[in-house]
Amino acid sequence: MIVLVAHLKFSCYDETIFNIKMTYKGFKEYNHPVSIKIFDDKILRGQPAVEAIFYIITNLLTGRMYIGSHKLFKYGEWLDGYYNSSTDEEFISLFWGMKKDIFEYKIVAGGTHQDMKNLENEYGVEHQVHTNPMYYNKAIPNKGVKYPARIELCQWTVDNLQNGVFDKKDQDGDWILKPILDIKGMDKHQARKYVDPNKNIKDIRQNIKDNNSISKTEPITIFGESKELLLDGNRTFIACENLKQAQGGLKQRVIPDSLINEVNYSEAEIEFMAELLNPRDEVSKEPTDDATVYDSLIKHKREYGIEFNSEYNKKYLKAHHYHKKQIEQMPTVAKKMYEVEEEQNEYGSTYIQWEDKESKDRKDLEKKCRGIEQESIINGKKQVITIIESAGAGKSLFAKIIDIFRKNEDCKRVIIYPWFKDKYIKENWQGSKKTVMTKKGPKVKVKTGTRKNLEDRLSYVIGHMNLGIDVEYHKSYDIIELDYLRPKTTEGTEN
To answer: What kind and span of H or E run contains 390?
Structure first.
């Protein structure tokens, strides 16, 4: 999230993924250095809490400025005693001297640390602050992170493709067709993670047959002239490969070498453009799937260090036509997916697939459970019954246990083996404590876990079942949590 004043022309951030509101209460009596005549922080008041700020300090007497960014010492509290890190002797002597009312200190934006660093860099480059005599800065600040793709450039390129700028036509305005054999030999880019090879192909073929021509097909998109890459249109190619109506070739739009050499597209930008050519709101083609988008968000973090809630990711999601609520939620989901993968990597293994009833682990556990139940049989009746169930199914698990006791009068004990798919299911099962920022300050938020709720319900119901019954006939239960992640193993040992 970036909170930003309108006059900064190089930024257009307007989305937020935070819901914590800031208050100015308690900050009114803050004592600033005497050199500050105006301290303008209204951009942050009453707005979502931020991690960092971007500020501009202006000498009201000369107009000379200093820019900087700062990661707040405490999340959401921007009055933390920090003002700048300038090394300019003239600026330092004025700012920390005894002369009053020299500077305006203006917080221009607030957001993630990465975004503020990038904003500072963009401004510094635009105004060349290291050589500009109107600035006290001695260097252009470094970027917080290098973005993999220039989103605006990619969007501009795709817009031009779709608007016909790169259509291959002759002087009469007729399409110059690309031979099928040439397309067959091209390298092809796949924009989606999951592809159904048969989806839409039959429809495309039938459409061509009905019209007895390729006139109503979309042009294929080729990246480059000297080295051709089929960026979009592989389905059309597959559908047309053996049709007589397509023997003359397919319509084409080509990104020319001159543009490619001029802007120097990165691999990430080529990939992003391929995704944009399959937009979510286009019904005639399969859109870029959510799995592909989540993979991209994780890649942004893993390969480029881009935080999930960054402005870059929000612009990326917006380009894929996700609505505001999805843009707020998807970075959080991607972060959980990333952390799950990182946890697996940390332990050098994979999750135990308890949900797979054909897996060795599941079969071994079921064998153990059958042994326990078999040993408990008295007079042909099971005294102990076992349950293997997902820890995420709390209510259904409770119902299963009660049904076992209700339908099996001789059963005295139920052993429950809850399993976890990942650490988030485990956290939800065990409960958690988190510190959150509120209008009144930090607050510890306690979330009761599924296990506690299950135990409370079972204790209540089973307690009533045991009323008036001899202790030796009392019903009870045990919960034995299953490990979900394999430990590291060494050669010659069994997992």
So the answer is: strand 384-390
